[in-house]
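Before the break, one more example. Copy the sequence into your notebook; we will annotate it together after we see the structure.
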Amino acid sequence: MKILVTGGAGFIGSHLVQKLNEEGYDVSVLDLRKPFQDVRWINKDIRDDLGNLFSDFHVVFHLAALANARRSSEDPRLCFETNIKGTLNVLRAALKGDVERVFLASSTWVSGAQDGEVVNEKSPFHLENVNTIYGASKISQELLCFAFYSEYKGPKYTIFRYGIPYGERMWKGLVVRAFMEMAERTKIISIMGDGKQFREFLYVGDLCEGQIQALKPLAENKIYNLTGTRPVTIEEIAKEIIKHFPAKIEYIPQARVEPKIKRVHNWLAENELGWVPKTSIEEGIAKCAEWWRTLNEEEKLEEYWC
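Here is what the structure looks like once it is written out:
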């Protein structure tokens, strides 16, 4: 099977490419940045017309996106052009190239518009409750997949609603990386508020394993939540990091209001794909600390994209 990964040189994409390679797939990467792995590289921007570029591929994993929710709020035009127009271009190229299936990287940020305090893949939406530009862009990407398949009879799709990933090569702004940098450079980790804010953090290796499981035919035209199994507080993250980079924790006033993300369950992924995250937060942060120590100063300033 020939597989194309858009955004395959970024944080999550590079890990997915690595796992697909290990499974024996023929993998190519479409990205503006050179891939980490020795694979075919298509140096192309998804915001441009992709023409016949997809005609050689059986499936496409579409991960290229503006993945920074805060930056999406600051620059909604860039978010629209990258996430929505980019997905439109990917689907058009997939349809033209007779690609069998497109795997879309969506996000559990869409849960803000779902019914209930605890949601799963089947929870209904109230679109008037969409509370972020980033979440709106992800819902729009999903709708394009549905509409293309309904109107044009292709390509088939599988949608992944990612939780909050962390791991090696994570980009700046993700809390695990930010806290490691604070602890190492200043010996102080600053937490805004009381530290009780939580997210369902997910180690990137587990996230990629779930996506590979979805190559099964039963995952066609389905949506899967791929997120952590329990809420992890920001304070817990900081306490794990200071085990590897000794530092003090300080609490500072909350500078901004974070949008509420609900509790999200992986009901369908667990029941259909047999996928359950295996890496504990302790194990995952230990891997991140090991990676961070291998980097030189220049590498620690590198930008990575989802």
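The chain has a mean pLDDT of 94. DSSP finds ten helices and 15 strands in the chain. Try to locate both features in your own notes.
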